[in-house]
Structures are given as C-alpha cells and as structure tokens.
Specification:
Number of strands: 0
CATH superfamily of one domain: Regulator of G-protein Signalling 4, domain 2
Helix content: 55-70%
Number of helices: 10
Structural class: mainly alpha
Strand content: under 5%
Largest sheet: none
C-alpha cells in the first residue's frame, strides 16, 4: 500500500476501477445493451480548432483508425467520445508512445519511459491499459535499456484493441453520426 495515502482514497480508486470494469463488460454486450448505458454528461471537449473534415474524409474514418488519428478534428472527436465512456486510457497511451518516439535525448527517454510505465503499464497504474502478461513482461524488459522501440509491441496491441473495439463504437456514436450528417 502507498505510504501517506488514507484508506478512503484507496477505496475510492478501487471502486472507480470496479465501475470502469463493469461498464466495459456492459459495453461489450450486443448493440442493444449499449442503448441502456447512460452516458456521463460532462461538457464534451470541443474538437481542436481545425477545419471540420469533408464528408469524404469523415467517412474514411469508419474503415481506417490511421486516418482518424492523423486528422486533428477526428482525433479530438474520438478523444471526446472515449472520455464520455471513461475509456480514454488506450488513446492516451498510444499518443504518449507517439510522443516518446520523438525523444532524442537518452536521459529524457528514460524519464519519459518511466512515466509511461507508471501511468499505463504497471499493475494498478492510474490509467492501466489492458495488455496481456507477455506484452507487459516484454515491455518491462525493453525498459531496462530504453530505446525508441521500447513500447512498440504494447502500442501495437493497444492500437489493435482500439481498431477492433473503440473505433466501431465511435462510428455508431452520436459524435460521429452528427459529423457525417
């Protein structure tokens, strides 16, 4: 147990994770079950101040997570959607990995690698992503000597998960449907 933390915040964190898991399970049920989920109605983030995509561009996102992530407006819309369902950690991890690959300094790379590991990979991390034990172990080994490819396997697993799970939910969402009207 972490020193200095009272039992109450730890309990709240555990409860929040339980709720997240239960919502995740519910969202994996057939489409009809998704209709019963009451979305969290926090003010959605407005997409970045970029030009709204053409209808053709937006329609391409249905079949290409790459095209969605490469478009600033698409990325902001996707991020807002994921936040509305409390599932933005995969996208945040993927983006952190993209930023990590741009680092040139070995010292900064080691510092950023540690931060990414503590935030997304380690067990009970605040934004723990769902990766298998093999991938987690391989990533930990890669971090013994951080390199630009330290997170590649984990990032590819999370990308595949977003492509298979998050993207289809986004395409069915009001966020996307409003965009293609």
């Amino acid at each position: 147990m972490c020193k200095g933390l009272a039992a109450l915040p730890h309990s709240c964190l555990e409860r929040a994770k339980e709720i997240k898991i239960k919502l995740g399970i519910l969202l994996q049920k057939p489409d009809s079950a998704v209709d019963f989920v009451i979305p969290y109605n926090e003010k959605p983030e407005k997409p970045a101040k970029t030009q709204k995509p053409s209808l053709d561009e937006a329609l391409q996102w249905r079949d290409s997570l790459d095209k969605l992530l490469q478009n600033n407006y698409g990325l902001a819309s996707f991020k807002s959607f994921l936040k509305s369902e409390f599932s933005e950690e995969n996208l945040e991890f993927w983006l952190a990995c993209e930023d990590y690959k741009k680092i040139k300094s070995p010292a900064k790379m080691a510092e950023k690698a540690k931060k990414i590991y503590e935030e997304f990979i380690q067990t009970e991390a605040p934004k723990e992503v769902n990766i298998d034990h093999f991938t987690k172990d391989l990533t930990m080994k890669n971090l013994m000597e951080p390199s630009l490819s330290s997170f590649d396997v984990a990032q590819k697993r999370i990308y595949a998960l977003m492509e298979k799970d998050s993207l289809p939910r986004f395409v069915r969402s009001e966020f996307y449907q409003e965009l293609i009207k």
